[in-house]
């Protein structure tokens, strides 16, 4: 277990025995029958320090209770056109599974615009995908492959990445902070593909700021990454933008191949699951419109430092390459 010792696990378990019942109930939704492995994840996120890991987990459990995260999979985003607009502007999908049984999530970083709804909708959608992954996808993979599967692989498509993406740093920092504080150690590897020159400039800035634990998970692959990814997954599980090397699959005509589309089986199953959960909870009530407002944890120091440094360095990059004025209107509020 590396930095995590059995003594640390035992101490952590003893501390968790003392928490209040509401926190114990939401902890069950986190660990899904594997409490020890979940404690290990939080210990790894805090370098094996039991007290820091305990504080982190307690904060996570309180966040879940305060924001009713256990019920978020029973809160559909309606109407369907609103959800379709979110899917078209927040590109993420499940493309398949690795040979080891890990879910492969594709994220269209470069072409995600986050401009079709409020921040609350995007945060709600992101958390719903996290919860569906942890409560449905991973347990299903565990049963299928006959061993505990608690992590996924992520493939980030940088096709279309431009300096204008700077305008989304605050939203992306919010999402990243939620993941870091409440869903730690859920990704085994982050693969970067179709990276343009501007990404190289960003990566040189960001890489030294990342914690070594995170840095070692990131692999920047050549081109569309197909050959490298085929070492860990079959061709059918490759995101489309890696299969053909033709960039993001956002505009594919065949929705069955486009894992970003609402019409893809993954998103259809997710959306139907959420509607079914709502009907179980409130069988005679109409689905309420409007986003769920989730309290955002105080931004982690690392994420805010990265965001501020990246903004500063990209400003320099912008001027050095003669793209004067393109960032003048992008004022990022870090409050």
Low-confidence stretches are 249-253, 323-335
H/E element order: HHHHHEEHEHEHHEHHHH
CATH superfamily annotation of the largest domain: CRAL-TRIO lipid binding domain
Query: In DSSP terms, counting alpha (H) and pi (I) runs of 4 or more, how many helices?
Result: 13
Provide the CATH architecture of the largest domain.
3-Layer(aba) Sandwich
What is the residue-mean pLDDT, rounded to a whole number?
A: 85
SS-based class: alpha/beta
- The value of Rg in angstroms is 20 Å
How many domains would you count in the coordinates?
A: 2
Strand portion: 5-15%
Helix fraction bin: 40-55%
CATH class annotation of the largest domain? Alpha Beta
Biggest β-sheet strands, sense, barrel: 5 strands, mixed
In which order are the strands of the major sheet placed? 1-2-3-4-5
Number of strands: 5
CATH topology of the largest domain: Phosphatidylinositol Transfer Protein Sec14p
Overall outline: globular
Question: First CA to last CA: what distance?
Answer: 38 Å
Keywords:
single chain, 335 residues, alpha/beta, Helicase, Ruva Protein, domain 3, Phosphatidylinositol Transfer Protein Sec14p, 2 domains, five-stranded mixed beta sheet, 13 helices, 5 strands, disordered C terminus
Would you give an account of this structure?
α2 (about 20-30) crosses α3, α7 (about 170-180) packs antiparallel against α13 and α8 crosses α13. About 50% of the residues lie in helices and about 10% in strands. The chain has helices spanning about 5-15, 20-30, 35-45, 50-65, 80-90, 120-145, 170-180, 195-205, 210-215, 225-230, 240-245, 265-280, 300-320; strands at about 90-95, 105-110, 150-155, 185-195, 220. By secondary structure, the chain is α/β, with parallel strands linked by helices. The protein has two domains: about 5-65, Orthogonal Bundle (Helicase, Ruva Protein, domain 3), CATH 1.10.8; about 75-280, CRAL-TRIO lipid binding domain (Phosphatidylinositol Transfer Protein Sec14p, 3-Layer(aba) Sandwich). β2, α6 and β3 (about 150-155) form a beta-alpha-beta unit. The protein has a five-stranded mixed beta sheet.
